[in-house]
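Marked as duplicate of an earlier ticket. Keeping the data here for the record.
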Amino acid sequence: MQEIISKLNVIVPEIRTISGTVSKDGESLDDANAFTAGSVRYIDPKYLRAFTTARQASIRACRQRGVRFLSGYAVPDESVAPLLAELAEITAKVNQEKIELMDKWGERLTEWEKEHPSVAKWKSRFPSASHAERQIGASVAAYKIEPKADMPAAVEDGIASEVKGLAAQVIEEIAQDVRDTWKPGAVKASQRIKGLLRRITEKARSLSFLDGHRLGNLARLVEETIAKLPPTGAIEGNDFLVLSGLMTILESPRRMLEGNLTINMVEEQAEAVGTTAAQAAQATLPVEVQEAAKESPAEPAMATAPADKIEEIQGTEVTKEPKPAAPIVAPAAPVTTAPSYAW
């Protein structure tokens, strides 16, 4: 345990911003852009968007190279320098946006009040530039953990307890990233999907020392699957079935933790009328995966982001099948078995 802890660094990015609203009492007003049930907006949200975007970018950067731990992210030694460099760029952008906003703070509030005159009633509650300046900013903390060596036997070592759960946390975060961006029902994907897969590979490999073998094997599975996909153009047909089989594994922590799954893809003419690519992908997965899917209906490939954002971030082209649905079948070809990827 001490050896694992010695390899970890805790990185804590903090991007601070303001909500752009203050509380209000009294009647409800019809201007939905300026009012909610209990608040009034005093500035156009577009002037604060850069700070929320920066916060999301810092979280993505940390999740790519580390795993949620204590107040920040546990990051291995070799990933600290590139992560801090990326966070430094994000911090610099935040500071520049802050300067520009503070220079025109009064103008921005006046501009909003002209567009929404009814907010003037609460003008006395709007923050000053100096108050907003104190609330907006960015910082990064990085430190090593030095646990007490002679912890009393009657006291649970909180650090050791947290570290023991990190491997499972890595698996859960990978599954959540896939569920957030991979939408079932697609019939092909663009090359942008490889960006997600490479991030998963980097995360699993860099943190593989946490559990001995499963994360390293997962990284190899994803990397070998990427190598089998076409280098350019749309990923479709049997290549898409391979990809779908991999994503079926990655969206489920339980399937990843089983550690003995194989993706067997068989290229043959689909005879079932109305078989979609997603259904064909399920049919060509190992029996263990098909049974796991039946046993765990509570684990659908959910997408929590809007479909347009999913396509933008992850590269999946989501296509609703017309009604009646035209059957999507694999091209006719002799029956051959592609290589299996086992981990």
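See parent ticket for discussion. Residues 208 and 215 are 5 Å apart (CA to CA).
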